[in-house]
Prior knowledge:
Layout: H1 4-23, H2 29-40, H3 44-68, H4 74-97, H5 101-130, H6 135-164, H7 169-188, H8 203-208, H9 227-234, H10 237-257, H11 260-271, H12 277-309, H13 311-331, H14 335-364, H15 369-376, H16 378-397, H17 402-422, H18 430-434
Amino acid sequence: MNSPNGARRWFYVASSTILMICFGTVYSWSYFQTPIMQAYGWNNAQVSLTFSFAIFFIGIAAAVGGILLSKTSPMRMALLGSILFSIGYFIAGYAFSIRSLALLYIGYGVVGGTGLGLGYVTPVTTIAKWFPDKKGLATGIVIMGFGLGALLMSKVIAPLFISWHGGNLVAVFLSFAIFFAIFTIPASLTLRNPAQGWSPGNEISNRSSPPANGPEASRSRMPAFSLRQASSDIFSIKFLLIWLVFFCNITSGISIIGFQSPMFQDLMHKIDSSLSPQALASMGATLIATTSLFNGFGRLLWGAVSDSAGRIRTYRLMLGSELIIFIALIVIKNPWLFAIFFCWILLCYGGGFGIMPATISELFGPEKMTIIYGVVLTAWSLGGVVGPQITAFIKDKMPSQASMLSFIVGTAFIAMGFCFSLLIPAPGHPKHSASQPR
């Protein structure tokens, strides 16, 4: 029979997934890109910079959160992230009311992005501690929620709220603030670390452990490593290569995630100029919803594959297939092929996030995972600025060639990422290596 702790860990997976679904709505930003530009007269680069700020501060806050998690409880960290995330939407709504682009950057980008980062790193690292036997699968399920957030936002939440408020973006974003607070704050309050001595199947130790919800269970039972103690790993060639692989995969994908709806609408308009703006917007929202499914499922699929095939080998497989797809997208003008290939890119983009927690745990040791995983997410920060801003610049300056040039840029980053992955020694079978003492 499973111990109470063993049963509880799946409850934590559920609450963590709810958190990640809410946080993952950030990937639906392209849904608002065109409406915001039309309502306020801002250009592609100006509006997309909001998304870039959010992604940048996700990575920075995740790095800080990873360090702080070794000294505080996951509940407190997730709660702080949830509150800041909701406040970010509130400030964004106020920014729209006074037509302030700078305040939009501060609210949605800085405050909301910081909340996202603190909230993102917490459930991932916490679930990894509960599932030493199934790291790729368990963290993949949780991170899958982040990928699915855009689906719910673009097809359910945003259309519903926009309909309720007659397209008033001020009211819509203020409603988002309340809505997400209702879901994220209670979910945050449930998170706990495993009790001391707990491990899957270790029933005797489980029974003799302190209660999982007691004060002594609020912190990780791994040896507490500081940033200074982990610095030798963070400044190693192995970490640099992992960081570069992650950065390249993120930059190539995120450079077009924020523009997938406008790109698809442009291609559809070229083959059928009779389509109304409303019809094109609906098609764009459907693409966001569909690709978000692949983004989410990729985090679970590739995480599970990596449990058997190995983390680095799985990265090579993903990046190699993406390289072929990006090259094909340079010349493809058919919007339906564009959509199909884009789904594959998002499948692999999400997979990079799904594999990374287990990769860090295995390459550097589970006791250092919280800190090092937080630091590796700075690749997300930089990629979130570099990728979208390159694409926004191309769309503003060379609109007639925007899609082709954007995919050339994506090809270059994926090619570099694949080459970096070849320089990382692939460890043995993860199940075997996980059983070895650290």
